[in-house]
Amino acid sequence: MPETQVSYRAFAKMVGLSEGAVRKAVERGTIVQGVTGKDTASPKIIPTIAAKEWGKSIIEQDDDDQDEIEVTDRDRKEAETVDMSQGIALDTPKAEADRLAAVFKARKLRLDALIMEGELVDKGRVYSILFEFAQTVRDLLLNVPDRCIDNVLAAETRNEALKVMGDEIAAALTSLAQTNEIELVKP
User: Fold this and answer.
1) Do 5 and 72 belong together in one domain?
2) DSSP label of 13
């Protein structure tokens, strides 16, 4: 059964690079066996061979691209090895490993800068503060009956009792709205 052949553009999408990068790889001779019809008007790429020659991993495509390419389980496993949280695959070419390391370093520096500027905060700290705030809301609302029961029982009409309860709930919510800005970044 013949290998699936795709355009330069489709292959570029498969490996997550530009069409120009694929053209340059073919021109430099990085991809030789993975290209067919190189001297024709519309040369084609054999994805699995070209990716292996070039040292790239094929990434999974959107559903609309499924008719043009077929991503195998082996391709998925290769794509997963490029994830920096899992480290760089041992068979990754040095140039690609250096590029991935530089990208990782740049991302880390950007995140560090965002943390220093207070634009990015620790998720655990946010959850902790939200939990404390939810406890405050719960406590204020659960204490409403205790604070107003005597006035409700003393009310002569149903409307007076509802007004007492409504005023007490409004006071609790107003006190919540007047809390200072939550400080997420440690001073």
Assistant:
1) yes
2) H
- Answer yes or no: is 65 within a domain: yes
Those residues whose C-beta lies under 8 Å from the C-beta of residue 143, and which sit 6 or more positions away, are 172
Clarify whether residues 90 and 44 are in a common domain: no
Give the predicted TM-score (pTM) of the model: 0.39
Q: What single-letter DSSP state applies at residue 65?
A: G
Neighbour count for residue 151 (Cβ, 10 Å): 15
Beta bridge partners of 36: 44
Tokens of 38: 């190189």
Expressed as residue numbers, the domain containing 90 is 83-120
* Dihedral (CA of 13, 14, 19, 20) sign: positive
Q: How many helices (H) and strands (E) does the chain have?
A: 8, 2
- The greatest distance separating any two alpha carbons of the chain, rounded to the nearest whole angstrom, comes to 97
CB atoms within 10 A of CB 18: 13
Residues 36 and 56 both lie in one domain: yes
Report which residue type is found at 136: T
Task: Confirm if 35 and 46 have CB atoms less than 8 A apart.
Answer: yes
pLDDT digit string, tens, across residues 90-135: 777 878 878 888 888 888 888 888 888 878 888 888 888 889 888 9
* pLDDT, tens digit, 9 for 90 and up, residues 168-183: 999 988 888 876 665 5
